[in-house]
From TrEMBL:
Keywords: Cell cycle, Cell division, Cell membrane, Membrane, Transmembrane, Transmembrane helix. InterPro entries: FtsQ, POTRA, POTRA_FtsQ_type. Residues 70-138 form the POTRA domain. This is POTRA domain-containing protein. It is found in: Membrane. Residues 302-324 are annotated as: Disordered. The keyword Transmembrane applies. The chain crosses the membrane at residues 39-60. Its main location: membrane.
Length: 324
């Protein structure tokens, strides 16, 4: 058979390359001098770069870092209940005798925000010598108590607080007096651990909070009127007021139950009674007990001492006759 011709012709060429290395003393000396001169040139260039860097570093040290003009002259901290100047230095490690350049704003802010009682912070360096720090403390909303976790009921001195965002934190010393008027949420169990700085995740708290929200909507002064709220078995909550009322609520229809409580209190006040306990679960039958009202005390009046009447003439004669 005949092979079909194509227009492409493949040609194989073999190219042989001859490499020859020629060496002589003169060529060796020339290459050696060129290598030495290159090494010296690069060494001098590196030395110049190092010297320039050293000079710049000394200039920065002398002109900025060790310059008395840039030392910390004023530490400005905004007025807040969470942290004072002494604790600020302990937490952040700021050296008051150091330079403003030694202060890293990001690190200082991170150390402040890590505190559970602080929600936000800002740090700025205002040259030549002012370090300005502004912190925002968490606002107390409610007390949290859980006996199983070592926080006793009504233990406002050792309890944790929670803000409206649901974050736990220890009560700042500057807020302690005003926070004493806030209600206590008494948890039956801890659920997840109560960790300061973390968000509270607890089913008991969610139920108690729903009741408190309703009280806030219907009674403007609820925060100062309610002393504590705790769960009652599995079907309700017990709300205790600061004037000694224990009101038992179911978990549903809270608006109606709160309205019944306020109406019952008003009715008892008009009659001069004080409610002790009331169960608001039912719509019609709502058992109520009252505090004993002490009867008015009688003020003892000293009896008037009667003056003896003067004797008549006949009575005097009869007395003398009897005395014989």
């Amino acid at each position: 058979m005949f092979k079909r011709r194509t227009s492409r012709v493949r040609q194989r060429r073999q190219v042989k390359v001859l490499r020859a290395s020629v060496m002589s003393p003169r060529i060796f000396w020339h290459d050696f001098r060129r290598a030495v001169f290159s090494l010296i040139r690069y060494t001098l260039l590196a030395a110049l770069i190092v010297a320039a860097g050293w000079g710049i570093w000394l200039g920065v040290q002398k002109g900025l870092l060790k310059n008395d003009e840039f030392r910390i002259q004023h530490l400005v901290l905004n007025d807040n209940p969470a942290i004072d100047e002494i604790r600020l230095l302990e937490v952040t490690g700021i050296d008051l005798s150091g330079s403003l350049f030694d202060c890293d704003p990001d690190k200082i802010r991170a150390s402040l925000v890590a505190l559970p009682e602080i929600s936000n912070a800002s740090v700025t360096r205002e040259f030549p010598g002012d370090l300005v720090i502004r912190v925002k403390a968490r606002e107390p909303f409610l007390w949290i108590a859980c006996e199983q976790l070592g926080v006793p009921p009504r233990g406002r001195d050792r309890g944790l607080m929670i803000d409206r965002a649901g974050r736990l934190f220890p009560c700042p010393e500057g807020d302690f007096d005003s926070a004493l008027d806030l209600p206590v949420m008494e948890l039956r169990n801890g659920g997840e651990a109560l960790v300061p700085g973390e968000k509270l995740v607890n089913t008991d708290f969610d139920r108690l909070l729903r009741l408190y929200r309703v009280a806030e909507e219907m009674l403007p002064e609820a925060s100062g009127w309610i002393d504590s709220i705790r769960l009652h078995k599995d079907w309700g909550c017990v709300l205790t007021t600061r004037d000694g009322i224990e009101a038992t609520f179911g978990h549903g229809d809270l608006e109606r139950q709160m309205g019944d409580l306020l109406a019952a209190m008003e009715h008892a006040r008009e009659k001069g009674d004080r409610i002790a306990t009331i169960v608001l679960v039912g719509r019609r039958n709502q058992p109520v007990t009252f505090h004993e009202v002490a009867p008015p005390r009688a003020i003892p009046v000293e009896e008037a001492q009667l003056q003896p009447e003067p004797e008549s003439a006949g009575q005097a004669d009869l007395r003398q006759l009897l005395e014989r």
